[in-house]
Amino acid sequence: MPKVLVTGATGFAGSHLAKRLLSEGYEVRTLVRSSADASYLEDLGAEIFTGDMLDHESVRRAVSGVDTVYHIAAIFRKAGLPDSMYWAVNYEGTINLMKACLDEGVRRVVHCSTVGVLGHIENPPANEDFPYNPGDIYQRTKCAAEKEILALHKDHGLPVSIIRPAGIYGPSDTRWLKLFRMVAHRKFAMLGSGNTFIHLVYISDLVDAFILAAQSPNAVGRVYIAAGERYITLNNLVQTIARATSVTVPKVHIPVAPVHFLSGICEDVCKTIHVEPPIFRRRVDFFIKDRAFDITRARTEIGYSPRIDVDEGVSRTVAWYSEQGLL
User: Fold this and answer.
1) Which whole-number Å values give the CA distances from 188 to 169, 245, 251, 255, 319, in the listed order?
2) Could you give the 3-state DSSP secondary structure of residue 11?
3) E-strand spans in 43-119?
4) Distant-in-sequence, close-in-space partners of 292: CB < 8 Å, separation ≥ 6
5) Measuring CA to CA, how many Å separate 102 from each of 2, 88, 96, 99, 213?
6) From first to last of its 327 residues, what are the pLDDT tens digits of the chain?
7) Which of 28, 172, 203, 290 has a CA 20 to 30 Å removed from the CA of 15?
8) CB-CB contact of 52 with 88 (8 Å)
9) Which of 80, 126, 139, 87 minimizes the C-alpha distance to 285?
10) pTM for the whole structure
């Protein structure tokens, strides 16, 4: 089996991808900041390279001799970080890696972007041709990287495929834990009507998309949205979580406008004193911005077919949270 490199292998999506590739017999190399964080992957047979995405030499050594590079590493959203850190990791580090792949003659690169580069979807569902409309710093840096990667493909022949995941969830993820926990503990209140669309992708389906993009001859230079079979409303999602946790469906709804105003003030104040704000603008945006997508291109060009429906995915996620004592 070919040797592959996975960046971000200690994170949620990257770790699931690395473990899948190892289970299928691939030689897996990881690029991590600390080898201690990747010790469990080393136990599974992965080759661990320590280095920094901003250091050209360590990146070059990491990609040297590999057939395929899966670039999953990114700063997602962390309170208190300056915008410059997002630009450094999500943009500069990404382009550094892409140029190293060109220099070392890597056969295929799969880059993990985000549907967030499209922002709020005015007339859902959106496909890959929907115009860029990033909102926050995470989305802006991912958008800039995606544009530059496509330019490197066009101008220099970078053999890259871009996957834009919808909202990723599943066992070992904790980004959705707060919502699940609030519903399970009967402390959840909906901001607004709850009729906003949301589109999720279960982690194993996303891993399928990564691997299909790497294997398909049709995928070079293409962008694919990876999402579940259907999008739902926030009300539907909360109802599904309530069923999975055996509680009554929350019925409290709070007006959005005053909360959105206060969240902006709170975030700005907390950013100046470097503390985690209790509420973010983006958390309020979650309740008012539609995210619904068309996966036809991925289905027809690379054979992507999501297998885990929201009901099953939420049940599996609740089971994992419960096993870990998190609910």
Assistant:
1) 19, 13, 9, 14, 20
2) coil
3) 47-50, 68-71, 108-112
4) 121, 124, 125, 126, 197, 198, 199, 231
5) 18, 20, 10, 5, 18
6) 789 999 999 999 999 999 999 999 999 999 988 766 788 888 899 999 988 899 999 999 999 999 999 999 998 866 667 889 999 999 999 999 999 999 999 999 999 999 999 998 988 999 999 999 998 899 999 999 999 999 999 999 999 999 999 999 999 999 999 999 999 999 999 989 999 999 999 999 999 999 999 999 999 999 999 999 999 999 999 999 999 999 999 888 888 877 766 766 777 777 676 666 666 666 777 888 899 999 999 999 999 999 999 999 999 999 999 999 999
7) 290
8) no
9) 139
10) 0.92
191 membership: H or E segment, kind and range: strand 190-191
On the CB side of 131, how many CA atoms lie within 13 Å of its CA? 3
The CA-CA-CA angle for residues 257, 262, 268, to 5°, reads 135
Strand partners for 273: none
**Phi/psi of residue 224, each to 5°?**
-130, 135
How far apart CA 312 and CA 100 sit, in angstroms, is: 40
Q: Which two tokens stand for residue 316?
A: 């599996």
**Which residue type, as a one-letter code, is found at position 47?**
E
| Residue in 197, 227, 202 with CA at minimum distance from that of residue 128 | 227
Alpha-carbon gap, residue 46 to 5, rounded angstroms: 10
| CA separation, residue 276 to residues 20, 264, 285 (Å) | 34, 13, 18
Closest CA to 313 of 238, 237, 235, 202: 202
**C-alpha span between 305 and 307 (Å, rounded):** 6
- Which residues lie closer than 8 Å to 218 by C-beta, 6 or more apart? 301, 302
H or E element: which one contains 200?
strand 200-202
- CB 32, CB 48: distance < 8 Å: yes
- Evaluate the omega torsion of the peptide bond into residue 255 and state whether it is cis, within 30 degrees of 0: no
Q: Is 157 helix (H, G, I), strand (E, B) or coil?
A: coil
317 touches 237 (CB < 8 A): no
